Amino acid sequence: MRVKTKGYLALAGGGILLLLIAIVCEGDLSRKVQGILLGLGSMGTAVGFARFFCGRFEERHPEQRRKAEIENRDERNRDIRFRSRAAAGQALQWAVMALAWVNILCDGALWITLSAVGIFCGKVVLEAALTGYYGSRM
């Protein structure tokens, strides 16, 4: 097992630990802190296990990994990815999510948080649409 896959397994373990802390300390924590722990724990667990299993698949099927690496390094595919990311605004995505987190922590209005999450989802959809557009254009 490579160090990279072990790191992802550790991330999944940390996510499970955060989930357990949020569940065990339910009455001792404020609702905000408990929500943040549940969100971060769920994210860590999901990302960790997904990346771990992808890494294990690549270890067991090296021919698929080589094919994917060649495709990722292909100049045309790289150009498509760079154009779609630039058009959608990668920096805007994280600024909007930071706004949502700050709003949650400051006990702001729910509509602001939902608007920020909606903008984030719109950015993801826009990036996918632009990737398809540039893919057919080039």
Largest β sheet strand count, sense and barrel closure: none
Percent strand: under 5%
How many strand segments?
0
What is the tally of helical segments?
A: 6
Unreliable residue runs: none
> What is the percent of helical residues?
over 70%
Domains (count):
2
Distance between the termini: 39 Å
Let me know the average pLDDT: 84
Q: Mind telling me the C-alpha Rg?
A: 19 Å
Shape: flat
Structural class: mainly alpha
- H/E element string? HHHHHH
Ordered list of secondary-structure elements with their pairings:
Elements: H1 3-24, H2 31-60, H3 62-73, H4 75-88, H5 90-105, H6 110-137
Report on the structure:
The chain has helices at 3-24, 31-60, 62-73, 75-88, 90-105, 110-137. With 138 residues, it is mostly helical. The chain folds into two domains: 1-73; 75-138. Helix 1 packs antiparallel against helix 2 and helix 4 (75-88) runs antiparallel to helix 6. It is flat, with a radius of gyration of 19 Å.
The gist of it:
With 138 residues, the chain is mostly helical. 88% of the residues lie in helices and 0% in strands. The protein is flat and about 55 Å long.
